[in-house]
Amino acid sequence: MEVLLEFFRFLKQRKRYWLWPLCIVLVLLATFLVIAQGSALAPFIYSLF
């Protein structure tokens, strides 16, 4: 978690605002995959990719 906070501070300091949407989407996708792993949603996730 510390790495993410440090990365977001870096983005804010360096004014890399164009990277924010990409980072947010990647974090949400990773969270979704971790939550859905091993659940009944697995066949539906497979069909998305």
Protein described:
It is elongated, with a radius of gyration of 14 Å. By secondary structure, the chain is mainly alpha-helical. The chain has one domain. The two termini are 27 Å apart. The chain is built from three helices and no strands. The longest helix is centred in the middle third of the chain and has 17 residues, at 20-36. The mean pLDDT is 81.
Low-confidence stretches: none
Number of domains: 1
Structural class comes to mainly alpha
The counted number of beta strands is 0
Describe the main β-sheet briefly: none
Order of helices and strands: HHH
Strand content bin: under 5%
Radius of gyration: 14 Å
Q: How is this fold's topology laid out?
A:
Layout: H1 2-14, H2 20-36, H3 42-48
Compose a concise summary of this entry.
With 49 residues, the chain is mostly helical. It has helices at 2-14, 20-36, 42-48.
